């Protein structure tokens, strides 16, 4: 995969260096065109009207739905289009019939979206056990062996940390969960866009991810489920097989969770994004990012005055790299990179306040995150700019 060749699909890269794909990725022309084709040429609601425009829109929606499901090795019938990862996790957290005394295990590494829904269950008598990561964000499966018991109903973990980049050993954790009859929810917001994923290999029961981090539009996310056991959060138009004044029968597939008009153009756009990723090949994308991440890690660790947080081996991590410049606030570093060098990075707590407390980084970190369009020259420019910033501190 040659990042230089595909860059013409991403016009934003003409003008600046985008190293904030962990927050939201860029979108290629092909995806923007698929969305605008729906809006300008065949816009209609789906699964409702019998006219030809609706038939075309419905078919394109269903094709995109199937493609998104097979991208993660899932069945279309149990793959639900949501608004984002946060909503996908929320559907599971609100839909399980919790009982007092149930236990949930999660980690201190989590994004607020995979932490707050579980902490809130404490109000309903559910116990929440927190597994602590090492300082670099890695977690030994033995920590889960100690935390998961026969009372554990669900384990909710991120696949890849959005702060430290560390990948968790999901397959091993899945085996531990299933030995105890617990289900496993994986927050794949940072992994699905970057590495090949098959839900059968992961062994999880729920996988949640966001369209806007994988070349798709905002307002789209995915919840894949092994079994459709959670009670839907919202029901109404589109979610039933039958309804009368005495009762209703929910649809037997994903439609029970997609009450109301879904993001039609957005889902068609996400389907196009998946097509784009598949045509490049997820293996090749992850190899490219491993190479870029090695260059970034080597460069950053070579600068006196920059501290890198997270694992050092690109094979154990994704291209989300956090660092700090002692003596300068992370927001100031990010502002200078933008204003002086046209480099976009994120700074702050990354919606992971408990992790920041644990790492004793109250101001947070600067985070550079890569994707398939990131080039080695861009990394070198970031490194040169950081050398100048470090000189300002001295
Ligand atoms: N989990 C992780 C690991 C994330 O990085 C993010 C986005 N920063 C989310 C959940 C939430 O994603 P969204 O805002 O799309 O719901």
UniProtKB/TrEMBL annotation:
CDD domains: SufS_like
Coiled coil region boundaries: none
One GO BP annotation of this record: cysteine metabolic process
Enzyme class: transferase
Keywords for this protein: Aminotransferase, Pyridoxal phosphate, Transferase
Pfam name, any one: Aminotran_5
Gene3D superfamilies per the UniProt record, alphabetical: Aspartate Aminotransferase, domain 1 (3.90.1150.10), Type I PLP-dependent aspartate aminotransferase-like (Major domain) (3.40.640.10)
Enzyme nomenclature, EC number: 2.8.1.7
Domain of life according to the entry: Archaea
Cofactor requirement: pyridoxal 5'-phosphate
Keyword Thylakoid: no
GO MF term list: cysteine desulfurase activity; pyridoxal phosphate binding; transaminase activity
Occurrences of domain Aminotransferase class V (ranges): 17-382
Transmembrane segments: none
Family: Belongs to the class-V pyridoxal-phosphate-dependent aminotransferase family. Csd subfamily.
Protein name, as recorded: cysteine desulfurase
